Amino acid sequence: MPSHDKTKTPPERRRAPAGTTVRIDGLRLSREAWAKVESLTAQLRRAGIPRARPSGALDLLVLHPEVAARVLAGGCRVYRCATCEAWLDAAGALAHQDALPTHEVQGFSVPVA
Questions:
Q1: Which of 77, 78, 82, 109 is the most buried (most CB within 10 A)?
Q2: Structural contact between residues 108 and 80, judged by C-beta atoms closer than 8 angstroms
Q3: Where are the domains of the chain?
Q4: Which long-range CB contacts under 8 A does 45-51 form with residues at least 24 apart?
Q5: Residues 24 and 55 sit within 8 Å (Cβ to Cβ)
Q6: What pLDDT digit, counting tens, does each position of 25-84 carry?
Q7: H helices within the chain, ranges in order?
């Protein structure tokens, strides 16, 4: 007989009650924050940004909240440095490219949600 029950759902995969938290990358997020991460991920996918995932959207929300707000609103252009993975607006992209000419900055048009 096996030493464990395979039919039992592991604790990390159990659905939490409504109004509680969600775990991602070791962090606990509220349901409202998770909904924001999911909508940001959807906007990034619509913009054609490669490998748009919830963990990347969470990084964008935490590290660059002003860019995340523009992406969620839609109808704008955002820039991502493929070398150092920084998120920038138009002015920041030009300054970044001038300061570090070896870095590759890519622009993406975000459609209106």
A1: 78
A2: yes
A3: 20-110
A4: 46/110, 46/111, 47/71, 47/78, 47/108, 47/109, 47/110, 47/111, 48/108, 49/80, 49/108
A5: yes
A6: 666 777 888 888 889 889 888 888 777 888 888 888 888 888 888 888 888 888 888 888
A7: 31-46, 54-63, 65-73, 90-99
